[in-house]
């Protein structure tokens, strides 16, 4: 989710470099939230029309993609290009931390909820992710998203990254969906790793290396069949 910009040729070089070392890069295109950088350039895909400024620090912002048809066309065009550049089986579509504030006050969103028989904005988020999943599946790929994609109903072939603890991952494995465990308690490398007064600025938290190494991504309370759905762990280093 780095906001660096790369040319297509640079991306091809990075993918090849990783591949030569048996590493698969899974790109993440964040939606419907955490996308103010995109909305700053394309405010027409928001609920209010903007204007917006690219974030200069971390945070969860109320302005998110508005699920209008034009927004899906925009995102599908981006995903098509991403899929062309990245050969990974999975494409990460984000899905985390999407406030519903704008959707509650937006006529487009409220009309979409009526026409699709959605009972609340969580179901609208689920509609958003499932519609994107159908598109990604139509290109022969699968989606992976943060554990919020469980809310309002998991898209049929989606894999889940469990970041708000391991509960989301456990729920997904029990529903026979693949899971990457990445709980903020153990896997967030933007936390302090020592005494904050001796360290450069971090997001917060305290996650020393001993705690990280002691993390077991396969919860003991899963059956062996369910445990097969745990793909492994991921560490997150947000910039
Ligand atoms: C996340 O840290 N918002 C996935
Ligand atoms: Zn809207």
Describe, in short, the structure shown.
This protein is an alpha/beta fold. Helices cover 35% and strands 13% of the residues.
Question: What's the structural blueprint in terms of helices and strands?
Answer:
Blueprint: H1 8-20, E1 28-31, H2 36-41, H3 69-85, E2 90-94, H4 101-104, H5 107-115, H6 121-138, E3 142-146, E4 159-162, H7 167-174, E5 179-181, E6 191-192, E7 204-206, H8 209-213, H9 224-227, E8 230-233
Helix pairs in contact: 3-6
Bound molecules: acetamide and zinc ion.
Structure overview:
By secondary structure, the protein is an alpha/beta fold. Helices cover 35% and strands 13% of the residues. It is built from 9 helices and 8 strands. The strands form 2 sheets. A 6-stranded parallel sheet has the order 1-2-3-4-5-8, with helices on one face. A two-stranded parallel ribbon has the order 6-7. Helix 3 crosses helix 6. The longest helix is centred in the middle third of the chain and has 18 residues. The termini are close together. Bound molecules: acetamide (ACM) and zinc ion. The site of acetamide has 4 residues, from loops.
What percentage of residues falls in helices of 4 or more residues?
25-40%
Let me know the number of strands: 8
Q: List ligands, each type once.
A: acetamide, zinc ion
Round the mean pLDDT to the nearest integer and report it.
95
Give the biggest beta sheet. Answer: 6 strands, parallel
Could you give the distance between the termini? Answer: 8 Å
Order of helices and strands: HEHHEHHHEEHEEEHHE
Poorly predicted runs: none
Enumerate the strands of the largest sheet in spatial order, edge to edge or round the barrel. 1-2-3-4-5-8
Question: What is the 3D shape?
Answer: globular
Radius of gyration, in Å, reads 18 Å
> Which percent band covers the strand fraction?
5-15%
> Structural class, judged by helices and strands?
alpha/beta
Q: What is the number of helices?
A: 9
